[in-house]
Amino acid sequence: MVSPLAYVDSKAQIGENVTIHPFAYIDGDTVIGDNCTIMPYASVLRGTRMGENNIVYQGAILGATPQDFKFKGDDTLLVIGNNNVFREKVIVNRATYAGDVTIVGNGNFLLEGVHLAHDTHLGNNCVFGNGAKTAGNCQIDDCAIVGSGVIIKHGCRIGTWSLLKDGCRADKDVPPYMVAAHNPITYYGVNAVILSKEGNVSEEVIDDIAKAYRQIYQCSTSLQNALLRIRDTVPDSPQIQTILDFIEHSEQGIIGVTM
């Protein structure tokens, strides 16, 4: 199912049951796994390694050259898992330095105009709204929801099951399980509806997550002291431990808090 009106380089590796529509561009040194669909005017550029059951819509560009002044033409990679959807005009850059990789996991849905910059690592089952963008070297953990028009600045991490409301500017790390909103961006509550319906998290644990974030954002104490209070007063669970580990290993600092 490869249209004769598409350009497919002879060095591209194309899996079984792949559909490549007219006017698509498939570069050399690419791998497209089984059952993928490449729509008209989409481009899969060199260095892209794509798994199975992905759909790439019109005008999307995968494996684009990094928008990074440090890029000197190294052979770098974009590695994509399975079951992802790249809607119209999505751009994903490959990495900057030889041996480095931009990663897109499994089951992600990137709406129109999303941009994932060089060396960004996107986990599994995330949603990016229209026009959401990351700078380079960002990390987006599993099941995050990034609203339309959100901008994530260089090197920031977005925690698992977090939700960034439309138009936010994330200049620091966003911890897990929270809703983040406003500009300057800050804590807006717990992502309770999604956690209970999709994450199978109990009401008791959701309440404990809220208690933990109250210590950080509403008790007028230092972050270090808030973490001590969480360990002392909030029942332990995998979710609470995930929050503590995320904050303690944050390199950028977390939103809404002065370190």
From TrEMBL:
EC code? 2.3.1.129
Q: Which residues form the UDP N-acetylglucosamine O-acyltransferase C-terminal domain?
A: 173-255
Per the record, the domain of life is Bacteria
Alphabetical GO CC annotations of the entry are: membrane
Molecular function as annotated in GO: acyl-[acyl-carrier-protein]-UDP-N-acetylglucosamine O-acyltransferase activity
Q: What Pfam families does the annotation carry?
A: Acetyltransf_11 (PF13720), Hexapep (PF00132)
**InterPro entries xref list:** Acetyltransf_C, Acetyltransf_C_sf, Hexapep, Lipid_A_LpxA, Trimer_LpxA-like_sf
SUPFAM superfamilies per the UniProt record, alphabetical: Trimeric LpxA-like enzymes
**GO BP of this protein:** lipid A biosynthetic process
Q: Which UniProt keywords apply?
A: Acyltransferase, Lipid A biosynthesis, Lipid biosynthesis, Lipid metabolism, Transferase
Gene3D superfamilies cross-referenced by the UniProt entry: Hexapeptide repeat proteins (2.160.10.10), Udp N-acetylglucosamine O-acyltransferase, C-terminal domain (1.20.1180.10)
Protein name (record): Acyl-ACP--UDP-N-acetylglucosamine O-acyltransferase
Q: What is the lineage of its organism?
A: Bacteria, Pseudomonadati, Bacteroidota, Bacteroidia, Bacteroidales
* Gene name as annotated: lpxA
